[in-house]
């Protein structure tokens, strides 16, 4: 019976992966943000009565299953991958806005939502601050996927990603204190406030310490190996080990993973990883996170439909308004004294602070007998659905409207010249192709082609002048050209190997050299 259960669970899991992969592929083909598509389709599947999918829905929407999959199975991977690829130099350059948002902004949002929930939503003190902790965490996955598709500035993407990596950890700590210790601390008065502050500092400090030690230890370990499959395994052990070890010491697993991955991705890659290893580790986690994100957002859509929102529309509308107002105070307030942050960026950071799967997973982890649990679930799920669908779909037009996705200077002019040059190139090819079929004389075709070639030469001169005016633009084009050339070389070596012209050892050696050059180009671009 146990074997049958495991077999059935595997079948359900595979069906879920197939549905998630299909929706993700379709959304990517249409160049739309796939997390939002998954949530919408998941909600539709959850509301529709599809007999074949009923066992899947029942399995996924069990609170314990959802909580385990999101927090224990996927969260360490998602946080680890994001921190692994975040250059410390980028983080350091933007430390002021990131720290202001992640700590000052999150705590301000926590207080505003907490007190507003007591006053406007009628929650008890613990329930109010549990809800506040859930709504203070931002989910970067959706908004970052949109940022990438519209080419938003790297610095802005770094700020929102850095904020979300650290504020997730802070929100989890605030949630645990609010859910399990707040009443005790309140009863103790001033002494309780001291205990609460100590607990807060201890949980974060222990998380930093555990993550730092493990990240440093595994980074040193990579010096003794030049074997990327083994080093990928090291990264898996590091992310999950840091999370579980920190949780076993009642520290912040989220902060431990982020710190460990930051050290491993920066210090570890510098002292112990070849460029080929770095690229392969990055590619591995790209696959893992795409799968994890696809499943997470589909599960969120399925889970949301299990909550009965009837007769709660007034509370839901009020809760959404409270969360939006608190986020506005958090962003504009915490960045008030931070220089070099354009107002348009603040608008994007404000509206782009989406809520996601972590909020739902934490809400479901509340004990069954927790006072106000059902109301918290209804409001948390409603805010997350509004956030992912309404804010998620409107952030892209907002970014375009604010001009945050403007290309570097000269790029638009370059695109216009390229488009015109391509037109003339295509025109010449078409004339040469059809002139025989149409019995066009050389005199006629040459006169048209000559005119096109004059225009093409003129455009080439204009492009060269543009490159002299904007050297960075020329460098980007050179890098793009070199990368295409290197990919073709990599494929050519593989072709020689398939034909048994060269040995696998020589092929591996040559492909590693090519991969190293590709990584160097990406790091310098």
From TrEMBL:
Entry keyword set: Antiport, Cell membrane, Ion transport, Membrane, Sodium, Sodium transport, Transmembrane, Transmembrane helix, Transport
Residue stretches making up the Cation/H+ exchanger transmembrane domain: 19-401
Topology in membrane: Multi-pass membrane protein
The keyword Hydrolase belongs to this UniProt entry's keyword annotation: no
UniProt-listed Pfam families: Na_H_Exchanger
Record's keyword annotation contains Transport: yes
Cellular compartments annotated: Cell membrane
Gene3D superfamilies: 6.10.140.1330
Predominant location category: membrane
Family affiliation: Belongs to the monovalent cation:proton antiporter 1 (CPA1) transporter (TC 2.A.36) family.
Name of the protein in its database record: Na+/H+ antiporter
């Amino acid at each position: 019976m146990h074997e049958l259960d495991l077999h059935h669970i595997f079948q359900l899991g595979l069906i879920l992966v197939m549905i998630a992969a299909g929706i993700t592929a379709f959304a990517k083909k249409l160049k739309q943000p796939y997390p939002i598509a998954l949530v919408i389709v998941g909600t539709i599947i959850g509301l529709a009565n599809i007999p074949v999918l009923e066992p899947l829905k029942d399995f996924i929407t069990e609170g314990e299953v959802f909580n385990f999959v999101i927090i224990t199975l996927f969260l360490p991977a998602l946080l680890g991958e994001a921190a692994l690829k975040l250059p410390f130099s980028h983080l350091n350059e933007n430390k002021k806005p990131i720290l202001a948002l992640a700590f000052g902004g999150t705590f301000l949002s926590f207080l505003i939502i907490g007190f507003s929930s007591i006053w406007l939503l009628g929650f008890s003190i613990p329930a109010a601050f549990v809800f506040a902790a859930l709504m203070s965490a931002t989910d970067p996955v959706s908004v970052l996927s949109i940022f990438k598709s519209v080419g938003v500035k790297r610095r802005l993407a770094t700020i929102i990603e850095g904020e979300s990596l650290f504020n997730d950890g802070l929100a989890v700590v605030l949630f645990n204190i609010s859910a399990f210790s707040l009443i005790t601390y309140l009863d103790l008065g001033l002494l309780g406030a001291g205990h609460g502050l100590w607990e807060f500092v201890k949980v974060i400090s222990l998380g930093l310490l555990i993550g730092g030690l493990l990240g440093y230890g595994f980074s040193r370990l990579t010096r003794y190996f030049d074997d990327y499959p083994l080093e990928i395994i090291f990264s898996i052990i590091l992310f999950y080990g840091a999370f579980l070890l920190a949780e076993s010491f009642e520290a912040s697993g989220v902060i431990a993973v982020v710190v460990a991955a930051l050290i491993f991705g920066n210090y570890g890659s510098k002292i112990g990883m070849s460029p080929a290893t770095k690229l392969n580790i990055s590619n591995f986690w790209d696959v893992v996170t795409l799968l994890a994100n696809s499943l997470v957002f589909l599960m969120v859509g399925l889970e949301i439909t299990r909550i009965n929102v009837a007769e709660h529309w007034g509370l839901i509308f009020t809760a959404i308004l409270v969360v939006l107002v608190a986020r506005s105070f958090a962003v504009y307030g915490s960045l008030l004294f931070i220089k070099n942050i354009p107002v348009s960026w603040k608008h994007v950071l404000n509206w782009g602070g989406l809520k996601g799967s972590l909020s739902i997973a934490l809400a479901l982890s509340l004990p069954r007998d927790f006072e106000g649990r059902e109301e918290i679930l209804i409001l948390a799920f409603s805010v997350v659905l509004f956030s992912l669908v309404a804010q998620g779909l409107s952030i892209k037009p907002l970014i375009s409207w604010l001009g945050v996705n403007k290309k570097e200077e000269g790029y638009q002019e370059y695109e216009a010249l390229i488009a015109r040059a391509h037109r003339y190139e295509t025109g010449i090819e078409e004339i040469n192709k059809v002139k025989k079929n149409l019995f066009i004389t050389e005199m006629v075709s040459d006169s048209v082609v000559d005119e096109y070639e004059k225009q093409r030469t003129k455009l080439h001169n204009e492009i060269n002048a543009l490159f002299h005016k904007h050297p960075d633009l020329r460098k980007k084009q050179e890098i793009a050209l070199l990368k295409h050339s290197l990919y073709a070389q990599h494929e050519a070596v593989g072709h020689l190997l398939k034909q048994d012209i060269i040995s696998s050892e020589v092929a591996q050696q040559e492909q590693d050299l090519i991969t190293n050059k590709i990584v160097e180009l990406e790091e310098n671009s």
